[in-house]
Amino acid sequence: MNFRVFLAVLCCKITRFLIRLVGRGGTAMPGRIALKICPTVLGRLSQGVRTILITGTNGKTTSARMIEQAFIDQKRSYLANKSGANLISGITAEFAMQSTLFGRCKKEFAVIECDEAASKTVLKYLKPEVIVATNVFRDQLDRYGEITHTLNNIIEGISHSPDSLLCLNADDSLIASIPEHVPNKTVFFGISVPLEAGDSAELSDAPHCIHCKTEYVYDYRTYGHLGGFRCPNCGYARPVPQYAVTEIASQDADSSSVTMDLNGRNLFLHINLPAVYNIYNAAGAAAALDAFGFQRAEIASALASFDCGFGRMEKFDLEGTPGRMMLVKNPAGCNQVMRYLAALKDPAEFVVCLNDNDADGTDISWIWDADFERLATMGDRLARVLVSGVRAEDMALRLKYAGVPVERMEIIHDYAALIDEMCRSEDRVFIMPTYTAMLDLRSQLQKRLGGKEFWE
Questions:
Q1: pLDDT tens digit string along 316-332?
Q2: What is the side-by-side strand order in the sheet with 109-113?
Q3: Burial of residue 289, with CB atoms counted within 10 A of its CB: 0-12 exposed, 13-18 middle, 19 or more buried
Q4: Per-residue pLDDT for 173 more than 50?
C-alpha cells in the first residue's frame, strides 16, 4: 500500500470530522490537505468507480441532482459532491471520505460536478464513464477570461479521458465543436422545437462561427447563443441530437412537461423545475442516464422527483410565505431568471443580493448586460424589490435604469432584517443572489427556518 495515500485519506477524514464538529462544511480544505500529502490521490481513490461527470458554465449542480436521483431511486451505492465543491480539492475530499484508509472507495458509482476551469486538472486523474458538457457562457471574466478559453479548458480536460462517452449540448455552437478536437465517442442532446420565449434580440456570447467568424444564422433560438445555429459561409451547423426535446407540453411557475426523443424512443417527462434552462439540464441528464444503462421509466421518475440543488430554484417556507432561491452568476443565467419572473401571473416580491467576492467574480459589470428591463414589464405584478449584498447600491442603480420604480425598491444590507421583510411579505418571494451571497443568506435562512445544511 502507498503510505502517502494512507496518510492523505487519514488526514482528510480527521480534518473533515473536526470542521464538521464546529458546524462548518469542510468541503474543500480536507481535500487540499490530502492533495498536499499525495497530489495523485484522486486517481488512486477513483479507480474502479463508475463515474458520471458534469461540467460547463451553467446547470452543473442541477444536472447532477437530476442524475443523482436515479441512483437514489434504484438504491445504487454512489457518492456525489452535492455541496457544490467542484474543484479538485472538493472532489478529492468526497472520494476520500467514501474510501477506506487503504485507498479503496466503498462506493460503486459516483456523480461528480466539475468546475469547467478545473476539468483540465481533475480529468488527469478521474476517468468518468460519461462526461456531460452543459454549455459555455461568459462568466467571471476575472477568472475564466473569454469563453473560448473556457471551452479550451474543457477540451483539454476531455483529452485526458479519451475513453469517456461525451453527452454534449447540440444547441451550443461552442460545445458542439468539441468532437473536432478529441477522439471520444459522442452523443448530443438539445431542444428541437422553437420556443415562443426564444428572443433573437437577447445578448449572444457566441454570435460568430467558431471556424470562419461569419455571423450565425438561426432557424430558432432558445436563449443566449443556444438554438438551431448554422454558418452560411462554411456550413458548420447544429448537429442532429440523439436526445431531443420534441414538444414542450406545459410550463408553469414550478415545473415543465416535455416529450423527448430518447435515442429513437419517445418519452414523456415531467421536470420538477420550471424554466427553459432546466429543460436543457433534464435533457442532458436523460442522455447521460440512458447512456449509463438506466431504463426509461427510471429516468422519467428521477426527473419528476429530484430535489433542487442548494440555491438552484430551491424552495423555502418563509414562515408561511412561499420563497424560491435562484443563484445567478452571469448575464445568460440572469436573463433566464428575468424571463421566468416576467412570465409569472401572480404578484411577487423580488430580492437580489449582489456580491463581488472572489468566488462571485470581482467584475460586476455583467449586470449591465443582463436584461433587468424585463422586471419593469411586470408592472403591478412586481410588488416590491429588496436589494442587498456588498454591491447593493450598484444593483439598485442598475434596476433604476432598467425602469423599476424607485418607490418599490429598498436597500437592506443586514440579512437578518432582510429575512424579516421576506417573511412579512403577502406575495411569493423570489431571491436572486450571487454565489457568496447565496451561501451567507441561505445559512441564515437555514438557522432560522430549519432545513438541510448546504453539504447535505
A1: 999 999 999 999 988 88
A2: 78-80, 109-113, 50-55, 130-133, 165-169, 186-191, 243-251, 256-262, 266-271
A3: buried
A4: yes
Tell me, what's the pLDDT at 336?
87
Q: Is the pLDDT of residue 455 over 80?
A: no
Mind listing the pLDDT tens digit for each residue in 284-298? 999 999 999 999 999
Q: Quick check: 427 and 381 in contact, CB under 8 A?
A: no
Alpha carbon distance 351, 213 (integer Å): 39
66 three-class SS: helix
363 is catalytic: yes
Q: Region 2-14: what's the mean pLDDT?
A: 93
β-partners of residue 325 are 314, 431
N residues, the chain = 456
Encode 389-410: b = buried (16+ Cβ within 10 Å), e = exposed: bbbbebbbebbeebebeeebbe
Active-site residue, from 219, 317, 363, 414: 363
- Within 13 Å and on the Cβ side, how many CA atoms surround 436? 12
Distance CA 376, CA 455 (A): 36
Rounded to an integer, what distance in angstroms lies between the CA atom of residue 416 and that of residue 114? Answer: 33
CB hemisphere CA count around 208 (13 angstroms):
6
pTM of the model: 0.90
- Grid coordinates representing 306? 429530484
Report residue 311: phi and psi, to 5°.
80, 0
